[in-house]
Amino acid sequence: MEKLIVQYKTSKEQRYITLFVACYFFITSLASVFYFIINKRFDVLFYLSLTGLLLSLIPIFLFTLWQPKPLISVDNEDITVNFPDQKLSGKISWDQISRINIGISHLKIHTEASKTYQIDLNELKYKDLREIKTIIIEFCEAKHIPYEND
What are residue 119's phi and psi, to 5 degrees? Predict the structure, then answer.
């Protein structure tokens, strides 16, 4: 079985273009700041260059370090959910699952400890929703976990 990861982020082309522009502004602002420091001119242009230096760091961090976590991940071991504003956030092992109800835009996971988790999938695109349902059905059949439509 293959691992399915659903993660919404910007395209690679958009990230590369934004990073290129941000790095260009960072380098020019840094050069301007050094120029003004060397010449000991601390006027408005120095502070504008310093502001440009700090503002150019924001897209660099946004498109490299501050990428969002995957919304849902399904593999042989467990189901990992990171949807915002939901009670369930974390992992559910396939060994703990006793039954799954599959709805139009939600999953109800019943565990052996008599807990029921409802995962709301309204935030996903239809294509991703269909892939998640398909792979969960495949895992349920492979691991002999009963499932039904809700």
Answer: -105, 115
